[in-house]
Write a structure and sequence with these properties.
- Helix 1 packs parallel to helix 6 and helix 11 packs across helix 14.
- The chain is built from 14 helices and 11 strands.
- The strands form 3 sheets. It has a 7-stranded mixed β-sheet with strand order 2-1-5-6-10-9-11.
- The protein is α/β, with parallel strands linked by helices.
- The two termini are 41 Å apart.
- It is globular.
């Protein structure tokens, strides 16, 4: 029974010089994830290299109850950003104390980094041969220091199954929501996002940072067109119809849409249709042909193609995972590396 299920344990490693905001992200996002009966789905604990005070980059320290031995009990380990990593950041090597702490992590534990926390995973060798990202301002240095890592500076986060990394600050929120969505489905993740008052899902191909001014406030946006689309995902949608909602030419609309969302109109629509399909697969028993029609993919074959590309599993496997346990479960890791990107804050 669900009441007997053990919550997934997330252990956050607090290092000297940590950023308080990013330290709090796992507690805020995972701590809000609940089952349909209100059961917490995650247990979130914090440890340091030793119990006691840990200096932050602000004018205060935090007191950590647990030492590194707690890492041995984790199902997921999260390493938030720190601005005082010393030889990890400068030379790409772990201190003896940090190496001893990371040695407590059991094989098969899921590893997550936020922003420059990725330096710790890379210095420990966990990112060798894998895709990874970090804050855009550190990406070039990160790649030079760790040439075996496949660094992508233009994404919000990377998901390589058991190792996930994010860019800076708000991208950590996106990554944690992505993990909740992967573990327990879109409905749970969306509820966490609503309670946290953040977008439920950011994706796309825009770089983390674009050196150009923000659009002037008086300029027309594409908000109305996007709202119009969301009411018509099940219908054929033409670019000319979207542009007409904003009284723009197709060329102007397409350029403005990409500036504001980070992706093309077509990519954005596919993403919304995948989210709609996920909700239908999780919450209904509709046949695949009907799910395909209601989400705008038209055919079961098209539905399978897009869901497989986005989630790494077939629609049938996705439904089986979440319907079998009353709406929550753990989605298998994608078949291959995946990334999600979008405008970073």
């Amino acid at each position: 029974m669900e009441s007997e299920k053990k919550a997934h344990r997330v252990v956050v490693l607090a290092l000297t010089g940590l950023l308080p905001f990013e330290l709090g992200i796992p507690h805020r996002i995972f701590g809000r994830a609940k089952s349909p009966t209100g059961q917490p789905l995650y247990e979130i604990l914090t440890c340091g290299l030793a119990p006691g005070p840990v200096r932050t980059d602000a004018d205060f320290a935090i007191h950590v109850e647990h030492g590194p031995e707690l890492l041995a009990t984790a199902d997921t380990v999260v390493v938030p950003a720190s601005y005082a990593l010393g030889p990890v950041h400068e030379e790409g090597r772990l201190t003896d104390e940090l190496a001893a702490a990371l040695a407590h992590i059991r094989p098969g534990t899921r590893l997550v980094s936020i922003c420059t926390g990725g330096y710790v995973l890379a210095a420990a060798g966990f990112l060798d041969g894998r895709p990874a990202t970090t804050h855009w301002a550190s990406a070039e240095h990160f790649q030079r220091l760790f040439p075996a890592v496949r660094v992508d500076p233009d994404v919000l986060y990377t998901d390589d199954g058991d190792v996930l990394t994010s860019a800076g600050v708000a991208a950590g929120v996106d990554l944690c929501l992505h993990i909740v969505r992967r573990d327990h489905g879109a409905a749970v993740a969306n509820e966490v996002a609503r309670r946290t008052v953040v977008p439920p899902h950011r994706e796309g191909g825009q770089a983390q940072f674009i050196a150009r001014p923000m659009p002037e406030p008086q300029l027309a946006t594409t908000t109305a067109a996007r709202a119009w689309v969301l009411d018509r995902l099940h219908e054929p949608l033409r670019l000319t119809d979207l542009a007409r909602q904003e009284s723009m030419s197709v060329r102007t609309f397409t350029r403005r849409f990409r500036e504001e969302s980070g992706v093309s109109p077509g990519q954005w629509i596919v993403g919304r249709r995948v989210e709609r399909a996920r909700q239908l697969l999780e919450q209904t028993e509709l046949p695949m042909e009907q799910v395909a029609r209601d989400s705008g993919f038209g055919t079961a074959q098209s539905l399978r193609k897009h869901v497989q590309a986005a989630l790494g599993v077939s629609p049938t496997a996705y439904r089986r995972t979440f319907r079998a346990v009353g709406g929550t479960g753990t989605l298998p890791a994608p078949d291959g590396p995946s990334v999600a990107a979008g405008p970073a804050h």
